[in-house]
Structure to design on (307 residues):
């Protein structure tokens, strides 16, 4: 039997907006995308459960250094909620706990219940979450039948929009802060309506500055010739587009790239003075150099692009 030659990995820098399919874990989707690009280094920005689909931003190469600047961004989901049934996990992967009558629920009742969840509030993460307690994921304890303390976290629900009510299904768009569990929101909606509910489908539409409209499926990427796949990537600096910018002279850019701090008189211009962090560029924005923090009257490198 002929041995399979070892895979040839290479440096790939950029951001891929992937439309993750249902039934695949976020890590499995990342590894498949890495193989398609032969990218030696990669990571994802915020997991999606296997039953969920939609926008999964992936970072390759140097982009992994800057993912922190969008990890805390708001997200938008399209959620399908099944009224009248509760499950052990709050989603379709759990066992049925209880069924209740839901025929009396109308659009006015759903919209009234949704209105209660707007704004800043506390939310207790679900038992089957990937959060860690004493080094182990919540879901590991749940599968073992062990109850652990789950501290409530502060979240913000910016908007909930009812798209469709076709009992027993409710379809809503949810614009929420980082850390919000939509399956917990589905359970809370069922409790508010008095009939119980669980999440049956979830699709991420937006994450920070990124939209599902600009994403690629794995099938789309496979259809693109290898030599042309790089065109599907967004540049690394896409991750810091929300930061104010600083443009350096050629001499200052060389010093910055070596990790040296810069006094303010070395900087041509700060687009927005007195901000904690800046995206740093060469003259006339010829190249993105990294991110710096403004501290003690100087710009100090936080993350640098390695060329």
């Amino acid at each position: 039997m002929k041995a399979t030659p070892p895979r040839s990995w290479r440096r790939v820098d950029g951001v891929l907006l992937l439309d993750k399919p249902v039934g695949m874990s976020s890590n499995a989707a990342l590894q498949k995308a890495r193989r398609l690009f032969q990218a030696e280094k990669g990571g994802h920005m915020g997991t999606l459960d296997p039953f969920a689909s939609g926008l999964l931003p992936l970072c390759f190469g140097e982009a992994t250094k800057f993912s922190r600047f969008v990890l805390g961004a708001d997200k938008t989901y399209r959620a399908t909620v099944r009224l009248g049934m509760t499950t052990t996990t709050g989603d379709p992967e759990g066992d049925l706990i209880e069924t209740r009558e839901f025929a009396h629920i109308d659009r006015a009742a759903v919209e009234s219940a949704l209105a209660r969840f707007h704004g800043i509030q506390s939310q207790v993460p679900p038992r089957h979450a990937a959060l860690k307690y004493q080094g182990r994921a919540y879901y590991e304890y749940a599968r073992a039948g062990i109850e652990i303390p789950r501290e409530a976290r502060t979240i913000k629900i910016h908007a909930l929009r009812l798209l469709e009510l076709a009992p027993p299904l409710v379809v809503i768009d949810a614009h929420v802060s980082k850390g919000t569990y939509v399956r917990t929101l589905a359970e809370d909606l069922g409790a508010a309506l008095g009939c119980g509910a669980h999440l049956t489908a979830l699709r991420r539409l937006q994450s920070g500055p990124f939209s599902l409209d600009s994403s690629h499926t794995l099938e789309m990427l496979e259809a693109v010739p290898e030599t042309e796949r790089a065109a599907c990537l967004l540049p690394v600096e896409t991750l810091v587009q929300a930061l104010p910018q600083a443009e350096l002279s050629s001499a200052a850019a060389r010093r910055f790239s070596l990790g040296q701090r810069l006094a303010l008189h070395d900087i041509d211009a700060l687009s927005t003075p007195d901000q904690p962090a800046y995206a740093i560029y060469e003259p006339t924005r010829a190249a993105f150099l990294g991110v710096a923090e403004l501290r003690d009257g100087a710009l100090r490198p936080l993350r640098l692009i390695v060329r």
User: Anything to note?
Assistant: Residues 107 and 167 are 10 Å apart (CA to CA). The first helix runs from residue 26 to 37. The chain has a mean pLDDT of 90. The longest strand covers residues 153-166.
